[in-house]
Amino acid sequence: MIVNEMQKILRQNIREYGMYIALFVIMAYFTYATGGVFISSRNIANLINQTGYIAVLAVGMTLVIVIRHIDLSVGFLAGFLGALAAIAMTSWGCSGPVAALLALVLGLGAGLVTAFLVAQMGIPSFVATLAGWLIYRGALLLVTLKTGTIIIDNTFFNALGNGYVPDLLGGIRILPGVHKLTLLLGVLAIIYFIYSEFKTRANKLAYNFEVLSAQIFTFKLVFVSALMCCVTWVLAGYNGISWTLVIVGVVVVLYDFVTTQTVLGRHIFAVGGNPEAAELSGISVKKIIFVVFGSMGLMAGLSGILFASRLQSATTTAGTLFELDAIAAAFIGGASAAGGVGKVTGSIIGALVYMSLTSGMNLMGIDISSQYIVRGAVLAGAVIFDVSTRRGRK
Amino acid sequence: MGSAMSILEMKDITKTFPGVKALSNVSFQVEEGEIHCLVGENGAGKSTLMKVLSGVHPFGSYTGDILFQGAVQQFQGIADSEKVGIAIIHQELALIPELTVYENILLGHEITKGIRIDWNETIRKATEMLKKVGLDLNPATQVKDLGVGRQQLVEIAKALSRDVKLLILDEPTAALNEDDCDNLLSLLDGLRKHGVTCVLISHKLKEVIRIADKVTVLRDGQTVVTLDAHQGEVAEGSLIKHMVGREIDDIYPKRSHERSEEVVLSVANWCANEFGNGRPVLRDMNFHVKKGEIVGFAGLMGSGRTELARSIFGNPDHYKLQGEMQVKGVRRHLTHPRQAIQAGIAYATEDRKRNGLVLIQDVRQNITLANLKAISRRNVVNGNAEVKVANEYKTALAIKTPSIEQIVGYLSGGNQQKVSVAKWLFVNPDVLILDEPTRGIDVGAKYEIYTIMNKLVEKGMSIIMISSELPEVLGMSDRVYVVASGRITGELPVAEATQEKIMQMATSC
C-alpha cells in the first residue's frame, strides 16, 4: 500500500526528483573523489557564493525562456553594471547602497529597452539581445579602458559577495566554533516547514481534496527536516549564512511565489504556452514581455553587483559567458525552449548542479578542457532526460 | 466475404494508453476499390486505429494483426506504411506553406538526376498529378497562397504521386465550404473508378451516405457494426443510433423561452481596414443581438465572419475601425480583448488548437485563464477555489477527462471545445461569440454543445454563432445574418430561412 503510493509519487514526479537525485549523486561523487573536501563547510560556503551571481541570472532567464524568448545580453550587462557601480563608489563618491541601487535601476532600464525592441518593434529577441551583447561588452571595455581593473574598497559592497550574517548568539558558550544563529534559523525554518505542511494539508482536507496518506506525509516531514538539519549543520560549521545566500534566497522565494501563486505568474506561463490564446483571453502579451525582460535586467544588475563584490573589483572581462551559464542552468532545471514550461526552483538546482561540477572538478585538479566537455555532456544529458520523461507522461 | 478481395484486414487490434484502453479487439476490413467510411464519436478510436495502421503507433505498442494485401505487416513508422502504399492525409495538413506546389508534391520523393534535383521532370510529374485531382493551377504557386480546399487537393495529389494503394483521409471536409466539399467528394468518386481504395473518416453523415460503399462504426474503442450501402443499410438515423448507442430523435434540441426585446449588442456602420495597406476587410455592417437570442452568422469561408467577431472583440488584429458599437446601451471603443471581456463580450475561437487553448496546460488552468481575478485575492490565486471552479464546470459541461489536471492537448476535439466554452462561461459574459462551435466534433458532442447553448440563452445570455454548416445555423438560430465579402447581405428570421436562400445571399457578391 505505502510502497504503491511511493511508486506512484515517484513516477509522477520523476522529472522533478531526477534533478535533485542528479545533484545528490554529483555531490556524493565529488565528496568521495576529494576525500570529503567537497562537502566541507568551507567549500560549500564558497560554492554557494560562486553560484549566487549565476543563480539570479538563471532565475530571470527562466521566465524569459518560458515566454519563448532568449536574452544573450545579460552577461556583459552584468559586467558593465558591476563596473559602473565600482566607478560610482571610487570616482563619484557614492556610498555602497547607492551604487548597488544604481546598478539595479540601470539594469531594470536596460531590460525595458530590450522589451521595447522585442514587444513594440517586433525584433526577434535573439537579434535584439545579440546587439545588446556587443553594446554592453563595448561599454564595459570603454569604462574600464583607462583604469583597467577597478579595485573596490567599500565594506558594505564587498560584504554582499563575501560577508556572512554575524553570529548574534556567538556569546553562548555551547558548541564552540559553530555558528549559533545559523542553527537557530535552521531550527526555525524546519518548524515553519512543518507548520505550513500541516496547514496546507488541513486546507486541502477542508475542500475534500486528495492528500498524501498519513505514513507518506510523516515520511516526507521527517525526510525533508533531516535534509534541512544536514544543510544547517554544514553551513553552521563555517561562517554560517552568507549575505549572497540571503539575497539569492529572497529572490528565489519571491520569484517562486510570483510564478506559482499569482495571476501575473499564470499569465506569464499562458503567454509562453500559447501567446495567441493568451492575447484572446484578455492578457496583454506586450505587458508580459515588458515585465519579464524588465525582471531579467534587474537580475543582471544584481548579478553584476554580486560578482563585482565577490572579486572586490570590476574587471574588463566581468560577465563573460554568464548568459550561457544561466541559459544552461535554466535548461538543466527543466525549462523548455518550446515555451510555457520551467520552474524557478528547478533553475536554481540547475545552477547548483552546474557550479558543483565546476567546483568539484577544480578541487580534483581536472584541467579546463575536460571541464567544458563534462559540462556540455551534463547539459545534453539533462535535456535528454527531461524530454524523454516528458514524452512518457502521456 | 472472401478475404481474397480484401486489401486490408485489421484483426483484434487492442491499443492501450496508460489508464485508457483506446481500442479493444477492433476488427476492420477494407475491400479493394471501395470507399470505406469510418465513423464514430470523438474519442471512439478512429484516429488511433488509423495511427496504428500507418505506423505512428509502431508494431509492438499494440496487439493484433494487420494484413495488407494478404501479408502480415509490422510497421515501425510512417515510412514503412508508405512503402507498401498506404497514405494518410491528416486533418491538419502536412504541407509546407513557403514551398511551391510542385516542391510539396514530391517532397521526400524528389526526382533526381545524379545528386541534383531534376526540376523539369518534377514539374512535369506534379502537373500530371494536379490534373488527376482536377486542379487547374500553376504548380509554381506557393502553397500558402492556396485556400484550404485546394491545399487538400494538393495533399491528395502528393499521395497519388506515390502510387498509393490505400488512401486514408482523416476528416478532409471539416474545414471546407460546401463547394470544396462537393469537389472533393466527386474526386474521390473518380478515383474509385480508377481503382484507388479509400478510407474516409468523417463526421458529416450526409457525405458519408453520399459516397460510402461501406461504413464501419466505432464506439468506445470497439467495432459496433459494418454496414453495406449497396444493401441499403446506410441511413442517417441508423448511423447516429450506432454511433451514440441511443436514438437522437432530433439533432437540434428545442428550447422554449420568452425572448426579450432588449438589445444587448448593436453595431452600426461598422467598417474595418487592414492596418498598413488599408485593404478593406469589413464594409458598412449593421446588426444587433437581443437578450437571450441565438443569432447565426452564415456565409462562406473567408467571407469576413471571423474578422467581424475579432474586430468587435477588442480588435487584436489592429484593424482601422469605423462605426459605432454599443454593449448594453453603452457606447464602447475597445482596443484589447481584455476590455471586451470587461464589457461583457466573450469569443471562443474557431481554431481551438491554434489560438483557443493553451494545449500544454491542464483543464483547470485553461478554464480559469480568462478570469483569474475571480479566484484571486490581491492577485494571489487561491488554488483550492480554482480546483472547485474547474470541477464544477467539468461536471456541468460533462467534460470527459480523467481529472482536471489532465493536459488539454490530450483530450478529444469535442472535449477541448467544451473546455474552451467553459473558459468563457467562467467569465460570465452577456454576449458569447462561438466561432464554428462544432467543427470537427462528433454528433453526440455536438448535441451536448447545442444543449449547453440552449441552457445559456434560457438564462438570458446572448449567443452569436458563426457556422459554415447550414443545417446547424437553421437548427439553432433565432435569427440569421448572411455575410459575403465583408458585407452583411441579408437578415432572416429563422422561420423564413432556407438553405437555398442563405446560399443565394452568401454568394450574391
Description of the molecule:
The complex is a heterodimer of chains A (394) and B (509). Chain A is mostly helical. Chain A has two domains: 37-163 and 260-391, ABC transporter involved in vitamin B12 uptake, BtuC; 169-241. Chain A has helices at residues 2-12, 14-33, 41-66, 74-90, 96-120, 125-143, 155-162, 180-206, 214-236, 243-261, 263-273, 275-280, 285-311, 322-332, 344-364, 368-391; strands at residues 150-151, 313-314. Chain A has a two-stranded antiparallel sheet. The two termini of chain A are 24 Å apart. Chain B has three domains: 3-244, 3-Layer(aba) Sandwich (Rossmann fold); 263-344 and 429-506, 3-Layer(aba) Sandwich (Rossmann fold), CATH 3.40.50.300; 360-427, no CATH class. Chain B has 17 helices and 24 strands. In chain B, strands 6-9-10-3-11-12 form a six-stranded mixed β-sheet, with helices on both faces. A six-stranded mixed β-sheet of chain B has the order 18-21-22-15-23-24, with helices on both faces. The longest helix of chain B is centred in the middle third of the chain and has 16 residues, at 178-193.
Describe, in short, the structure shown.
The complex is a heterodimer of chains A (394) and B (509). With 394 residues, chain A is mostly helical.
CATH architecture of the largest domain in chain B: 3-Layer(aba) Sandwich
In percent terms, what proportion of residues of chain B is strand? 25-35%
User: Could you please say which CATH topology of the largest domain in chain B applies here?
Assistant: Rossmann fold
Query: Structural class, judged by helices and strands of chain A?
Result: mainly alpha
What would CATH call the architecture of the largest domain in chain A?
Orthogonal Bundle
SS field, number of helical segments of chain B: 17
Query: What kind of sheet is the major sheet of chain A?
Result: 2 strands, antiparallel
Mean pLDDT of chain B: 87
What are the segments of chain A in which pLDDT stays under 50 over at least 5 consecutive residues? none
Report the radius of gyration of chain B as a whole number of Å: 24 Å
Terminal residue distance of chain A: 24 Å
- Structural class determined from secondary elements of chain B: alpha/beta
Radius of gyration of chain A: 22 Å
CATH topology title of the largest domain in chain A: ABC transporter involved in vitamin B12 uptake, BtuC
Q: Specify the overall morphology of chain A.
A: globular
